[in-house]
Amino acid sequence: MTLESHAETAAKSGFAGRSPGVRRAILVLSRVWAWIFLVALILIFTMTTKIYQQVDFLTVRNSQNILVEIVPVLLMGLGQTFVIIAGGIDLSVGWVMGMASVVSATVIVALLPTGIGEGLSILFGFAAGLITAMIPGFINGVIIAKLKIPSFIVTLGMSFIARGIAYLISGGNVVIGMPLGVRNFGNESLIYLQGGNVYFLQRPDVTGIALRSLDRVFTYPVVVAAIVVGIAIFVLRKTRFGRHTYAIGGSAEAASRAGIRVDRHTIILYTLSGLTVGLAGVLHTARFNGGSPIAGDPLLLSSIAAVIIGGVSMFGGHGNIVGTVIGALIIALLTTGLVMLNVQPFWQYIVVGVVVILAVLIDQGRDLIIGRMKAE
Amino acid sequence: MSRKIMILACALLVMLALVPLSVTAQTTATPKIKIGFVAGIVDPFYQVMELGINQAVADLGLTVVSQYPPAPWGPTSQTPILNAMIARGDLDYLIIAPTDKDQMVAPLQAAADAGIKVITVDTFLGDGDYIKGPVTFPLSYIGSDNAEGGRIAAEALAKALGEKGKVYVQNTTVGTSTTEQRGQGFKDGIAEYPNMQLVGMDYNLDDANTSAAQTAAVLQRAPDLGGIFGVNVFSATGASNAVINAGLGGQVQVVAFDATKDAIEKLRQGAISMVISQKPYDMGYLAVEFAMADHSGVSSLPRRVPTGYQVITAQNVDDPAVARFIYSVPGQ
User: Fold this and answer.
1) Model pLDDT, residue B13
2) Domains of chain A by start residue, with CATH
3) B209 vs A72: CB contact, 8 Å cut-off?
4) Which pTM was predicted?
5) Are residue B163 and residue B270 in the same domain, yes or no?
6) What residues in A contact B214, CB-CB < 8 Å?
């Protein structure tokens, strides 16, 4: 769908700002509303948890809990952001994550007795998880690009295939028997805070009550995710690859005429999506000390919701990585905040649903206004 | 080429002609029954149950055919398998874990109408009461009482905490009868102790990540939490992860339901303090014995048999009498 027809749809729906002032306000709002919503959520939860539960929401520990929680949804959402900006969608991410989790755990368990050492076993296991996750991504890309089958269908099919493989490898069980290093990588951190002291890399040797007040700041999965987010922002904003991604999402035909190798680019996009999802799977194995085939299944819709809340247009062509990070943060904040408030957690789904629809409405409003401004 | 086909066809005809002979020979020699087993899903719990069934079948000299529906759990996956079992036409008894108490009534009624006697294991039809309930055609319901399981978890946790303090439940999905009953049983069990308080119950949709996030949030709300009941292994995995990362390992007791190998590994590592194990092997063995007893004319079989639980802790996990309740299939 082109920008113009997209705007027409919005015009028919009657969502139109008339005066230039209102238009400008909506344009500004469309860029920053997710930030405003995020800050508002933090303020609301800070006040309400204090009033109703007498606990602090804005603590180091809570911030870290939320960062840890968003890692899988965020990693899934990163690849998805690229894919959706380019006008596609990847529905295979949920089960590919489970497959990567299971493969990494299985390889580690298989390598441990060979005597190559714990470190190498873990390294090879994680590498195997990442590589196996890229294979379905690559196949997705080839079928979508070369055989011109809609991404929705190809990746849906791939989702089932990955699910079958994940179950076949694991026998439906959680793959167990991880060495200690795996759990440490998933749960230990860069910085530790304890009683006003700061420790780097080395966890202070504390027990009992002191252990209770030990805060892990930037656990390794969070650090890994942050690095990947940094790379993704750079690639999308500063490189030719990023510009081509937007161009293809705007119009694949125009991009192709402009000399962009659309097929090759599409294949790389889906392979990259597999890579970030594979990373989510490997980190799940590390954090929960075992490979679970169902690890990613419940997260698929949350990851797409995060991307949409972040302002990526489902019609392709615009959006950015920071938006996806904010989207993932909003979802995680709702989980933590509502549980701390002792509210039925089901409200979370209702709020997320409203925010998703709101995000698309704002997106359409912006397109409409830009379209009008161009016309005038 | 055509000669080969001829030979093959002749061989087939001879084999087909022999089939009735062998069947009659078998039935006249041993007037034994044939049992069908349809599990709920591919899962170590049902695999252990099948081990119990196979042992009983071997002990009694019977034959059994076993089938596992593919994922996802539900009548859509299970009914085709069940119908294929009925279509065989040679089964006398069917041991099945119905995947839905209402939707599976009609398909299983068809089995009963076809002359196959039905025994439900682990799960049930109607309300599980085959005497006065809405569904009465199954012979018996042999399985754990999940509310009792929740109460046992509450008792075990209360004992470990000195019958005082705050506790919390990590549940999976709303409306799943087994896990809801475990949660409710736990609530009722805790209510027996005046100095214990349930601070909440959250649903994680079988996602360990969500369970960890919710538990971490609860630990902020109630830093003096004493124990957590995870109604299945994913719930307990997430809860124990949050507990350990809050520096509360060993101080907040995590109780897990179901003795999967994963749960037992976490018990050995100290991440989980107690595992409430069901007895799938016993369910399977007993179901076969019931079929044989019914066939022999015993008419006083109980219509409901709760098979009970085993509480597994780090202290007793290596005791063979306890370890046999771990859901582990040899060779896997």
Assistant:
1) 53
2) 3-375 (1.10.3470)
3) yes
4) 0.78
5) yes
6) 335-336, 339, 345
